Automatic annotation (TrEMBL):
Coiled-coil residue spans: none
Record family assignment: Belongs to the aldehyde dehydrogenase family.
Keywords, alphabetical: NAD, Oxidoreductase
Protein's UniProt name: Aldehyde dehydrogenase domain-containing protein
GO MF entry, a single one: oxidoreductase activity, acting on the aldehyde or oxo group of donors, NAD or NADP as acceptor
UniProt domain Aldehyde dehydrogenase: residue ranges: 1-397
Active site positions, chain numbering: 181
Tree of life domain: Eukaryota
Organism field: Cannabis sativa
Residues of the full protein shown: 1 to 408 of 562
């Protein structure tokens, strides 16, 4: 794993180019974050690999017993296209450390870096058969994994709809373990005492980072009435000023959507939002006639029962809503079938504590956003799934089978 991390670092430029070509990701972000982050994650789990312990159990009779932690077996990793490298290593690193063998199926839109990683793993000395990459479509290659009788666990990241299919396949085949990291529609709550400049920067990042194709994107934006007007003005100005363009240009902050399907889906949600009566503050249109670019789009006058507020759009579209009290913010933030992440902007520690404990979200970020890190378990509540990635929690789920051994 250490050697693989080294090889990744020696090939950062080439790997980042592959993800940019496949997914339209910013090359600058791939080079500075996604690819080096993969090497760091491998090292994090490599360091944990020899610290996996069972327990000595206290028996009521004069016997000895202990538990033995064993790899869960063969793991099928099925991942989406929005972070081809990060998600590959989010799955593979703890599985290697736990001693599992695995089959990884990247998304059909973004297979290139996964194939390169399989090649690097071989060069690093990972034994044949341990880390296998199978490309293909979901209904064929993906379904073959989720129905397979010799696969012991499917660790899936993707949409809630496909997560449901995976659970059904697991139930109707060999009752394999399932871990699901699914969609989201995360709230960002901005209170009156927040620094409006910082809050509007974070709100912009929250729905435009990776052109909005982020599971934890903050796409329901609740702003307290005292600063609402000032906040709205700043956010709209900043969205209009975002430098949009070729993802290979180091100055550019925002690139094209992954493909035509996603591009059309986002535009149809925008049209639906207008028909539902939401007011478009900025954006809402494609940019140019080359590439699948969509303007960062901000709606106001939106309500929780509108489709554009209920559904995960997975694009650069945010709904701006006004609230009065802390209680109202909590209630409305929780009015979602998803529970992946939430953000809170306030200087008041009591408010931050109360809201972070009351919002049903797997990750809550206070005065920051996208605080995803190697040691921090990440995963949702409600229809955002179950079973954490990252941290030692991810390792535990993969060495989850513990034999209990008794001896006289
Ligand atoms: P998707 O569910 O359509 O596809 C994800 C993967 O599942 C792909 O590899 C696909 O080929 C495969 N697949 C599709 N149908 C399948 C089937 N019937 N059986 C087995 N595999 C199948 O998702 P997507 O459009 O690629 O990605 C976007 C979704 O991923 C969003 O909902 C987003 O929120 C979610 N996501 C979640 C997280 C998280 O950590 N919670 C992270 C990134 C993305």
């Amino acid at each position: 794993m250490m050697k693989l991390a080294e090889l990744i670092e020696q090939n950062i430029e080439e790997l980042a180019i592959l993800d940019s070509l496949d997914a339209g990701k910013l090359l600058s972000v791939g080079k500075s974050t996604d690819i080096p982050g993969a090497a760091e994650l491998l090292r994090y789990y490599a360091g944990a690999a020899d610290k996996i312990h069972g327990q000595v159990l206290k028996m009521s009779r004069p016997l000895q017993a202990y538990t033995l932690m064993e790899p869960i077996g063969v793991v099928g990793h099925i991942i989406p296209w929005n972070f081809p490298t990060s998600l590959f290593f989010t799955k593979v690193s703890p599985a290697l450390a736990a001693g599992c063998t695995m089959v990884v199926k990247p998304a059909e839109q973004t297979p290139l870096s996964a194939l390169y990683y399989a090649h690097l793993a071989k060069l690093a000395g990972v034994p044949d058969g341990v880390l296998n990459v199978v490309t293909g479509f979901g209904h064929t290659a993906g379904a073959a994994i989720s129905h397979h009788m010799d696969i012991d666990m499917v660790s899936f990241t993707g949409s809630t709809e496909v997560g449901r299919e995976i659970m059904k396949a697991a139930a109707s085949s060999n009752l394999k373990h399932v871990s699901l990291e699914l969609g989201g529609k995360s709230p960002l709550i901005v209170f009156d005492d927040a620094d409006v400049d910082l809050a509007s920067d974070i709100a912009l990042l929250g729905f435009t980072f990776n052109k909005g194709e982020v599971c934890a994107a903050s796409t329901r934006l609740y702003v307290q009435e005292g600063i609402y007007d000032e906040f709205e003005k700043k956010l709209v100005e900043k969205a209009k000023a975002l430098l949009i363009g070729d993802p290979f240009d180091p100055q550019v902050r925002y690139g094209p959507q992954v493909d035509k399907v996603q591009f059309e889906k986002i535009l149809s949600y925008i049209e639906h939002g207008k028909r539902e009566g939401a007011t478009l503050l900025t954006g809402g249109k494609p940019i140019g006639d080359k590439g699948y670019y969509i303007q960062p789009t901000i709606f106001t006058n939106v309500k929780e029962n509108m489709m554009m507020v209920k559904d995960e759009i997975f694009g650069p579209v945010v709904g701006l809503m006004k609230f009065k009290s802390v209680e109202e913010a909590i209630e409305r933030a929780n009015e979602s079938k998803y529970g992946l992440a939430a953000g809170i902007m306030t200087k008041d520690l009591n408010v931050a504590n109360t809201v972070s404990r009351s919002v049903r979200a797997g990750s809550v970020w206070i005065n920051c956003y996208f605080g995803i890190d190697n040691d921090c378990p990440f995963g949702g509540y409600k229809m955002s799934g179950f079973g954490k990635d990252f941290g030692l929690d991810a390792l535990h789920k993969l060495k989850g089978i513990s034999s209990t051994i008794h001896a006289r």
